[in-house]
């Protein structure tokens, strides 16, 4: 797990989601507030997360529902503008996730200097967004072509709101993904954002690929963070950091501090 300590500076890092408001073209976009409104909200959340003591950040277009598996160009362009306006205030390692387009995610990382991306890189799924196919070979070759080899790739192997078309056990998926695609890390999720990652599934994946970092990707809360980090090599946290634990609310710095204090105590044991 050498790269985790090198990149984040700690073992078992907490990567905090900086959820962006809807982008131009998205059904939920606030055209009256414009992109400036997206920047204002992102800045407030960014500062609250950093004040709360998280280890890293990940910017995503969480409010771009319903998601596309190939996003419109304006989405990545707008995210690049938002992140660019905030870069001088970003004090932590950060990643990006353009939901759910791996090419756009890697492009955005290359444009902004992000150190990692999280995406669906492998598999074929039946999902709420239609038939969801991937081509990992094309994606990693694209990564090479745009000279983004240094960007770490976190593979979400339990996509939210989707299921493998084939009847495959998660242990089989983890092992074959690591062998065939050589991910830098695996992410294990619940059904949707904010839904707790099944600890037994997390444990099975970690046991199957002990040399590959495994992250709890959804539903980590104050009440379960010790159990999740007992297995996982890190956690991606979004919803629990929001006011009242509601995903679309703004980040609550007090909730961030409470969870991070617990995490630090766990690391010291």
Residue windows where pLDDT falls under 50 for at least 5 positions? none
Q: Gyration radius, to the nearest Å? A: 17 Å
By CATH, the architecture is named Alpha-Beta Barrel
Mean pLDDT: 95
CATH superfamily name?
Answer: Aldolase class I
Strand arrangement in the largest pleated sheet: 1-2-3-4-7-9-10-11
Q: With helices defined by DSSP (H or I, 4 residues minimum), what is the helix count?
A: 9
Shape: globular
The CATH class, by name, is Alpha Beta
CATH topology, by name, is: TIM Barrel
The count of domains is 1
Report the strand count: 11
C-alpha end-to-end distance? 19 Å
Helical content, roughly? 25-40%
* Fraction in beta strands: 15-25%
Largest sheet: 8 strands, parallel, barrel
Helix-strand string: HEHEHEHEEEHEEHEHEHEH
Structure description:
The chain has 269 residues and is α/β, with parallel strands linked by helices. The protein has a single domain, classed as Alpha-Beta Barrel (TIM Barrel). Helices cover 39% and strands 16% of the residues. It has nine helices and eleven strands. The strands form two sheets. It has an eight-stranded parallel β-barrel with strand order 1-2-3-4-7-9-10-11. A three-stranded antiparallel beta sheet has the order 6-5-8, with no helix packed on it. The longest helix has 19 residues, at 34-52. It starts with a helix and ends with a helix.
């Amino acid at each position: 797990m050498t790269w985790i300590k090198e990149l984040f500076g700690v073992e078992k890092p907490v990567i905090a989601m900086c959820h962006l408001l809807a982008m131009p073209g998205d059904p939920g976009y606030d055209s009256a507030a414009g992109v400036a409104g997206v920047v204002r909200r992102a800045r407030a959340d960014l500062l609250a997360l950093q004040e709360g003591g998280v280890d890293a950040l990940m910017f995503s277009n969480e409010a771009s529902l319903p998601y596309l598996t190939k996003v419109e160009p304006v989405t990545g362009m707008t995210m690049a503008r938002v992140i660019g306006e905030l870069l001088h205030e970003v004090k932590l390692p950060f990643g990006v996730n353009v939901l759910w387009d791996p090419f756009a995610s890697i492009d955005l990382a290359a444009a902004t200097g992000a150190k990692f991306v999280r995406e669906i890189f492998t598999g074929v799924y039946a999902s709420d967004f239609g038939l969801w196919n991937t081509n990992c070979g094309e994606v990693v070759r694209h990564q090479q072509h745009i000279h983004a080899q240094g960007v770490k790739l976190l593979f979400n192997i339990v996509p939210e709101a989707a299921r493998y078309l084939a009847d495959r056990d998660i242990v089989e998926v983890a092992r074959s993904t690591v062998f065939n695609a050589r991910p830098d890390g695996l992410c294990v999720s619940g059904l949707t954002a904010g839904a707790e990652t099944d600890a037994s599934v997390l444990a099975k994946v970690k046991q199957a690929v002990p040399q590959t970092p495994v992250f709890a990707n959804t539903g980590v809360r104050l009440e379960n963070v010790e159990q999740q980090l007992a297995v996982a090599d890190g956690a991606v946290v979004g919803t629990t950091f929001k006011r009242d634990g509601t995903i679309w609310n703004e980040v609550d710095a007090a909730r961030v501090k409470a969870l991070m204090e617990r995490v630090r105590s766990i690391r010291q044991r």
